[in-house]
Design brief:
Layout lengths: L26 H6 L5 E2 L12 E7 L6 E7 L7 E3 L1
Antiparallel strand pairs: 1-2, 2-3, 3-4
């Protein structure tokens, strides 16, 4: 079954840095990123907003991937992990 897309724009975010640099994830940028999945199954513990984006990344000093959430409330942007 085919579905017609509302928007056929493709987003690509390339992060380039040297080995000595660290990558910093800005919560406001993450919450506004249209390519990240969103969920209403969690509540922000900071502002009680009911929508967040989520992504996986390696946590500093830890092995493996960690699931991060960022509150979609533009006045909050709180980040937490599970």
């Amino acid at each position: 079954m085919w579905e017609i897309a509302d928007n056929n724009c493709v987003y690509r975010n390339e992060v380039q840095h040297s080995v000595s640099e660290t990558t910093q994830i800005l919560n406001a940028d993450v919450a506004a990123d249209p390519t990240l999945p969103r969920t209403k199954a969690v509540r922000c513990s900071n502002c009680n907003h009911g929508e967040a984006v989520f992504f996986q990344a390696t946590a500093r000093g830890e092995e493996g991937m960690t699931l991060f959430f960022v509150c979609c409330n533009p006045n909050c942007g709180f980040r937490w992990r599970e």
